[in-house]
TrEMBL record:
This is PLP-dependent aminotransferase family protein. Gene3D superfamilies: Type I PLP-dependent aspartate aminotransferase-like (Major domain), Winged helix-like DNA-binding domain superfamily/Winged helix DNA-binding domain. In the C-terminal section; belongs to the class-I pyridoxal-phosphate-dependent aminotransferase family. Keywords: Aminotransferase, DNA-binding, Pyridoxal phosphate, Transcription, Transcription regulation, Transferase. It comes from Bremerella cremea. The keyword Cytoplasm does not apply. One of its GO terms (molecular function) is transaminase activity. The keyword Transcription regulation applies.
């Protein structure tokens, strides 16, 4: 191990300084200037040499770490990683993680190994899973999907099940079937950004409805339906993205009453519904005759699966949701579906969910003391938080810095239906970021509130 007096080349660059530091590390590793095991200067040492603040150096090191080039050891410093040939692809892929997405935390190595072994078992079904499959999934895959949803208390009779290529495909098919061109869908004033993209693609409108800490306001929803001609209601009712709110049972019943009064469907996006140990009943169980249920697996298993279970009320089947799904994607990937089925049948899916909950609790314990209580909305088993920025800075500026640490953060602009919105951002505690890096980022956040 060499202790180096390394200095990054950052003079002639248009990159932000922290990115230039990370790029210089990568280039010097490629050229052999930095070798595996080399001990980089401390953040304070390098900051002094370059006449920069320590935060910029910390962001540069964190960015290099997220790309797999260096690693931080508590109490020892930052070292150039020794990357084996088998790790090379993994390290390259780390470099392209989308930090605008809300992702569950990475799982322990032993659980990841179990997932790999189980996936290999699923892939023994060659060549069958290389062929076209029935649209919506075959009998075994659907049985596993119903089995999984029953853990959430969802047991239905008057719905058809479709295994789809993720929640986006399901939502696209539903909005296309339920709303005519120019039609409007109601949602929270702060809502899932993917809904905007789908509505824009289809030429539909999004109408924001005011909410309080318990979710969408029923009276406001009723007025909007009457005045704006809204023809569907989109809800993300459990651990809401981005505010983390969960609609309690009575408010759910009040919203169901409004939907029934006007005869319009509820589209329930239950992306986070499996994370709480005891969530409220799903809308599909409270109003089965008019609720589309979209149960994506991205947050409770893994986003790379791109699988969601869609329940379509039999009474609305003639609107053509299944035909639209087939037109968009033909079928969900039989390979991915086989892996999901194997995980559910073997009980591994339950262990994955338990692992996500455990790691989320661990990271949330770091969050709570870092930010003033009145500035953060969070919930147990929720791996994102809704944070109000301090008066001295903007949410956009905080997001930019946090992304430099490798943290997934998104400013309020991505979620809002109303131009008047809080100075806030969604902070993701998950993804590939390490706990030491998260601690470092949260320490910086704490300093922002002390400034």
């Amino acid at each position: 191990m060499r202790r180096t007096d390394w200095i990054p080349r950052i003079e002639a660059t248009d990159l932000p300084l922290f990115e230039a530091i990370a790029q210089s590390i990568a280039e010097d590793i490629a050229e052999g200037t930095l070798l595996p095991g080399d001990h980089l200067p401390t953040q304070r040492q390098l900051a002094k040499r370059l006449n920069l603040d320590v935060t910029t150096i910390a962001r540069g090191y964190a960015t290099a770490a997220s790309c797999g080039h260096v690693e931080s050891r508590v109490g020892s410093g930052t070292f150039v990683r020794a990357v084996s040939s088998s790790e090379a692809t993994s390290a390259t892929r780390t470099d392209v993680v989308d930090r605008s997405m809300n992702q569950p935390p990475d799982l322990p190595v032993e659980l990841l190994e179990a997932m790999k072994r189980s996936a290999a078992t699923a892939l023994e079904a060659f060549p069958q899973i290389l062929r076209y499959q029935p649209e919506g999934g075959d009998a075994r895959d659907k049985a596993a999907a119903f089995n999984w949803m029953s853990r959430r208390g969802i047991v239905v009779e008057n719905h058809s099940l479709h295994i789809t290529t993720g929640a986006h495909a399901a939502l696209t098919a539903i909005l296309s079937a339920e709303l005519a061109a120019g039609g409007a869908i109601a949602c929270d004033q702060l809502t899932y950004p993917g809904l905007f993209g789908i509505a824009s693609l289809l030429g539909r409108k999004v109408q924001g409805i005011p909410a309080d800490r318990e979710g969408m306001l029923p009276d406001a929803l009723a007025r909007t339906i009457e005045q704006k001609g809204v023809r569907a209601i989109y809800l993300n009712p459990t651990l809401h993205n981005p505010t983390t709110a969960t609609i309690p049972l009575q408010r759910r019943l009040d919203l169901v009453k409004v939907a029934r009064q006007f005869g319009i469907p509820i589209i329930e996006d239950d992306a986070y519904g499996f994370l709480p140990v005891k969530p409220p009943p799903a809308f599909v169980m409270l109003a089965p005759e008019q609720t589309y249920y979209v149960g994506g697996l991205a947050k409770c298993m893994a986003p790379g699966l791109r699988i969601a279970n869609l329940l379509v009320p039999i009474a609305r089947k003639t609107l053509g949701v299944s035909e639209r799904l087939r037109a968009v994607s033909v079928m969900a990937s039989p390979i991915t579906t086989a892996i999901v089925t194997q995980w559910i049948e073997s009980g591994l899916a339950d262990k994955i969910l338990a692992g996500i909950r455990h790691e989320t609790r661990r990271r949330r314990k770091l969050l709570l003391p870092a930010i003033p209580k009145e500035k953060v909305q969070t919930a147990e088993h929720c791996f994102h938080a809704w944070v109000t920025a301090p008066e001295t800075t903007s949410a956009k500026r905080m997001v930019e810095t946090l992304r430099g640490f490798g943290i997934g953060a998104v400013s309020v602009e991505a979620f809002r239906t109303d131009p008047i919105s809080p100075n806030a951002f969604r902070l993701c505690l998950g993804g590939a970021v390490s706990v030491p890096t998260l601690e470092q980022a949260l320490a910086w956040v704490t300093e922002c509130y002390r400034a």
